[in-house]
Write a structure and sequence with these properties.
The complex is a heterodimer of chains A (299) and B (562).
Chain A (H helix, E strand, L loop, with lengths): L18 E3 L8 H15 L7 E6 L6 H18 L6 E5 L17 E5 L2 H14 L3 H9 L9 E7 L5 E6 L10 E8 L3 H5 L5 E6 L5 E5 L5 E5 L5 E5 L2 H4 L6 H18 L3 E8 L2 E9 L11
Antiparallel strand pairs in A: 1-2, 2-5, 3-4, 3-5, 6-7, 6-12, 7-8, 8-9, 10-11, 12-13
Chain B lengths: L30 E4 L10 H21 L4 E9 L2 E8 L4 H19 L2 H22 L8 H44 L5 H4 L7 H18 L1 H9 L5 H6 L4 H15 L18 H11 L7 H22 L5 H49 L14 H9 L6 H14 L8 E3 L10 H10 L10 E3 L1 E4 L2 E9 L13 E4 L15 E4 L7 H9 L3 E3 L4 H4 L5 E5 L4 E4 L2
Parallel strand pairs in B: 7-8, 8-9, 9-10
Antiparallel strand pairs in B: 1-3, 1-4, 2-3, 5-12, 6-10, 7-11, 11-12
Helix pairs in contact in B: 1-4, 2-4, 3-4, 3-12, 4-12, 4-13, 4-15, 6-9, 6-10
Classes of the chains: A alpha+beta (299), B alpha+beta (562).
Chain lengths: 299, 562
């Protein structure tokens, strides 16, 4: 089966002012599109990042002109995906977010499997209002980022119909060991892995030889699946698949290689979110690791 | 498996005073489980030796083939009742667990290629053995001693056929069982929902019913033939048909039907005549079919099932949109395997349990007749009271041997235990639970575990096939007794063997003492779309012939209305 293209690198037309496409130069400016989207936009040229656009907002209020621009951008995503109302992921991308000092992971709302112009618009509005939400404000206070930003950005990307999703750390986040890359993987969309409702498989890959050193297969009880028509839900993993590896060694190594490359490019350890669809690997997010323990010196 | 719950692990199971068993050394340390599903009635000496030998041999082969975590299998007919025991695997829990894992992989590999294995390997080999057995025609053997050669050849064919039997049924039932588990995990729902996706594949047994149905339509076209069938007892039908116009054609068609499908007996075993020897059960079914309207055609029922299946499969696929590919692929692979598996749970029996066994039965009948003619035995059925080795000795008519005395002794010993209730288990309680194995999970669904209800007007068992119906109970202990079943009545039996299948076309519901959701009775009831309660323990004792009963196939309960 030929899959519709999901990669962002080929879109470079000019757009209405408030809409910035991933891969565009202006989109790579964190001051316009927020840290998460800017980082993805930079990577979209060379990596397999799902197509998408950023809605750059002056504040939490949205106007009708912007709605028309979003509708046009969403239709264009549909044309790229080859379906009329493609399911998308709608995420906040705060302007100070994903700086090297704070991860902001999960502090703003995320909507997966959103389908149709009205639903997309609704999700963007919810994300925009979440910038002033309690969780985000508390996080900003703890991270020493006193005031909420005047500007906000919302990232809209084609949803990757993931067979498995995962998080990859280019260093061992537990021991701090820099010669190990740790891949966490579970079935379905990434929500269950990111939110921690499922214990993922843990694969330790050597940084230099990319050999799988350990593949701890977990009892994966739940998975997130896209609901046709919009949204996602968490469902039990059938018994016969629960203790089957979510990804094989080749898939894990591909993800580890991607994390190692991104660490080289960005100059420091990264944690990335990825999705596997068959033999394809998509990059969903890339952040610097903000809290890496100092590796214990071996006697 | 019904095990007295009050006994501690490792405790010796007390023997009832009317059922004393002398075990060989070490055999008393095993748990012996009675197989009431296949052999509810007392077996003759030869039959008991026959089923025990081939069951143990075939299962032993399949256990090795699929790395089942048991050390061996034994089977014995004790006072004419079949018991089987598994020798536990010795080793540390880790070793046993590793063994179980390899076994799971082995059986699942075959589950993944059931159709290919059946079409390219198993069925061709089965047909070769059957052809070889038929080619060694016992009726043409020049002497009784020549029959012994054929008997020994048959024994070799049967050993391989029973190896194939278990090599086929294990993965076939595992496929169905694993699919049912996957379906429940994915969608929840009622116990039968998964089986709707598997129905509608015509089995060989179903073809038998269809063929007989066509014969019934042919009979209906001639008023004279229809009149004979309506007014004569089944046994008198052939002679009466000779006398009416068009009767000859029906008889010719009946002979053709028997030649194609008559190599079956009414039960698992050797003691009942095949339908070629005695077509009375077939004629009885033909009579019942003649009373049915065209709309009751099994073909129409099959079409309904196919429509229902296709809709259920489409609905399940719709619910899987958005699921990860590994889940969807697993669903599709197990669906295909289970559809084939369910077919094989029936069709293997057509060729092995029925056809091959009826060939052995033919050989033994021939041998019986020759031994009577030789003056060695008084009745041809007496061969069934001899053991395999006795039979060879009898055929050689060696001096100093007395088969007649052996027959008398065996008959007397069996008669002593004819009226007893054989205990469900014998020997010793196992020290611990069995190791995890997909085959053991499947076995539970096959044999079920009856639980007494405690209420005299209520018999509870396992849900076997959906639906609720009220009707007059016909309690039968053999296919011959089942001749009394009238259309719309509830068939109550200890178990039903494949040749009973056409009865499902006229019964309103089925209730059995033995079996689980995967048992023959449940599978066929779902095929015919009638309610079934299986594994009901003592239904044939609790329900009296003629009782008005309400069968609730969803709840697995029978209410006796009287």
């Amino acid at each position: 089966m030929s899959r519709p293209s999901l990669s962002a690198a080929r879109i470079d037309d000019a757009d209405p002012a408030e809409i910035l496409w991933l891969g565009e130069e202006r989109c790579a400016d964190p001051a316009c599109s927020g840290g998460k989207a800017a980082s993805l936009s930079r990577l979209a040229a060379s990596r397999r990042v799902p197509h998408g656009f950023v809605v750059a907002l002056a504040g939490p209020s949205l106007d009708r002109g912007l709605r028309r621009a979003v509708a046009a951008a969403y239709r264009r995503l549909g044309a790229v995906a080859g379906v009329a109302d493609p399911p998308v992921a709608v995420r906040s991308s705060a302007i100070d977010e994903d700086g090297a000092g704070a991860s902001f992971a999960g502090q703003h709302d995320t909507y997966l499997g959103v389908s149709g112009v009205d639903q997309v618009w609704w999700a963007i509005a919810r994300c925009a209002s979440s910038f002033a939400g309690d969780r985000a404000l508390a996080y900003r206070r703890r991270a020493g980022l006193a005031a909420p930003p005047g500007r906000a950005a919302v990232l809209v990307q084609l949803l990757v119909p993931a067979d498995a999703s995962g998080v990859v750390f280019s260093a061992n986040p537990v021991t701090g060991a820099r010669d190990e890359i740790v891949v966490n993987a579970a079935f379905g969309l990434g929500e269950s892995v990111v939110s921690g409702t499922v214990t993922p498989d843990a694969i330790v890959v050597g940084r230099h030889d990319l050999a799988v050193r350990d593949h701890a297969v977990a009892d994966k009880r739940a998975m997130t699946v896209a609901v046709p028509g919009g949204g996602t839900r968490e469902v039990p993993v059938p018994g016969c698949l629960r203790t089957r590896p979510a990804v094989d060694a080749a898939q894990a190594r591909a993800a580890a290689r991607l994390a190692a490359d991104l660490e080289r490019e960005t100059g420091g350890p990264v944690d990335i979110e990825v999705a596997w669809v068959g033999s394809d690997l998509f990059l969903l997010q890339c952040r610097p690791i903000t809290t890496l323990p100092t590796p214990r010196s071996t006697p | 498996m019904t095990v007295p719950t009050m006994l501690a692990p490792g405790a010796a199971i007390p023997q009832p005073p009317d059922f004393r068993v002398y075990f060989e050394s070490g055999e008393d340390r095993l748990l012996w489980d009675r197989d009431r599903t296949h052999h509810p009635a007392q077996l003759t000496t030869l039959e008991g030796e026959f089923v025990a030998h081939f069951a143990a041999h075939g299962m032993g082969h399949a256990f090795e083939r699929y790395v089942v975590p048991v050390a061996g299998v034994r089977a014995r007919a004790i006072h004419g009742y079949l018991y089987t025991a598994f020798e536990p695997l010795q080793g540390s829990p880790e070793e046993v667990a590793r063994h179980a894992e390899r076994g799971e992989a082995a059986v699942l590999t075959t589950v993944g290629r059931l159709q290919t294995a059946w079409e390219d390997e198993w069925l061709p080999e089965i047909l070769e053995h059957l052809a070889a057995m038929e080619a060694a025609d016992p009726r043409r053997a020049p002497s009784t001693v020549g029959l012994v050669d054929i008997l020994e050849g048959y024994w070799e064919h049967m050993e391989r056929l029973w190896e194939l039997h278990f090599e086929i049924v294990f993965p076939a039932y595992v496929a169905v069982s694993e699919f049912a588990d996957l379906y429940r995990d994915l969608f929840g729902g009622e116990a039968f929902d998964a089986y709707r996706l598997l129905q509608g594949t015509p089995t060989r047994t179903f073809e038998v019913g269809c063929d007989l149905w066509r014969l019934s339509r042919l009979a209906l076209r001639s008023p004279g033939v229809a009149d004979v069938l309506a007014t004569h007892a089944a046994a008198d039908v052939p002679a009466a048909l000779e006398a009416v116009p068009a009767g000859r054609e029906v008889l010719t068609q009946l002979d053709r039907h028997l030649a194609a499908f008559g190599h079956r007996t009414a039960s698992w075993g050797l003691a009942t005549p095949s339908f070629i020897e005695d077509p009375t059960p077939v004629l009885k079914m033909l009579r019942d079919y003649v009373t049915q309207p065209d709309s009751a055609s099994p073909g129409i029922e099959l079409e309904r099932q196919v429509r229902e299946r296709d809709a259920a499969v489409a609905e399940a696929r719709g619910r899987l949109v958005g699921y990860p590919t590994p889940v969807v692929e697993q669903f599709e692979a197990l669906l295909e395997a289970a559809q084939t598996g369910l077919l094989l749970t029936e069709d293997h029996g057509f060729y092995i349990d029925a056809y091959a066994v009826s060939l052995v039965r033919d050989l033994l009948s021939e041998m019986g007749e020759r031994l009577v003619a030789d003056g060695v035995l008084d009745d041809r059925e007496d061969v069934l009271m001899l053991r395999y080795d006795d039979l060879r000795v009898a055929a050689l008519d060696l001096p100093g041997t007395d088969p007649r005395t052996l027959v008398e002794q065996r008959r007397a010993t069996l008669a002593e235990h004819a009226g007893v209730t054989p205990p469900p288990v014998l020997g010793t309680m196992p020290a611990g639970p069995p190791p995890p194995s997909p085959l053991l999970g499947m076995a539970m669904k096959f044999s079920g575990s009856p639980a007494p209800s405690g209420d005299p007007d209520r018999v509870s068992g396992a849900a076997g096939s959906a639906g609720r119906v009220t009707g007059v109970a016909r309690v039968v202990h053999s296919l011959a007794e089942a001749a009394a079943l009238a259309p719309g009545e509830v068939l109550v039996a200890e178990t039903t063997a494949p040749p009973w299948t056409p009865l499902f076309a006229i019964a309103a519901a089925v209730v059995t003492d033995t079996g689980g959701i995967l048992s023959h009775s449940a599978v066929v009831a779902r095929e015919y779309g009638i309610p079934a309660v299986v594994g009901a323990g003592d239904a044939t004792a609790a329900i009296r012939d003629g009782d008005l009963v309400e069968v609730d196939g969803d709840a697995g309960i029978v209410r006796i209305v009287r």
